[in-house]
Amino acid sequence: MEKRDIIKYTLIRSKRKTLELRLDAEGNAIVRAPLRFAKYRIDEFVAEKSGWIAKNRRKIAEQMENFSGFNPGEIARLKSEAAENFRERVNFFSALMSVTPAKVKISDARTRWGSCSGKNSVNLNWRLMLCPAEIRDYVIIHELAHISHKNHGAKFWARVAEFSPNYKICREWLKVNGGGLMRVEN
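Structure (tokenized):
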């Protein structure tokens, strides 16, 4: 039997049917598993994914280097630009989509690009200003679509596709590049 390095991970058990492995913003492994899933099988699963973990930890380290050089003045400027840009783009897309958000707020969330509350308040992460304009627009459209559709069902995605036909490319861009951007300190 081949000897493998033991990979530390955080285990979260819940009422789910499948195993899930993720890396957080710092590269720590997190496994979500069904309540009664055997621990040795989870260990085997993590060991099998050791190559994926190493590759993605390298990506995270590179992203941290690329997005670590902002001073407080630059961040304040980005937040100010975000407030102006988001207000303008939300107004533009709200009119196109025939929806009205209750409020639009600038967020400092560490894990979300945006959100839409049950009361139709839209929150947008100021770090979106570090993304290309098409990505910012996609996130705005995504959150505004939640005003009409409170879930991620087929009707929701059809609504998003109406106004952001390349939304799948935008989502992929955020998956690949978003981790580094989320590490930019406030």
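Residues 11 and 31 are 5 Å apart (CA to CA). The helical segments are 39-48, 50-66, 72-97, 133-148, 154-163, 167-182.
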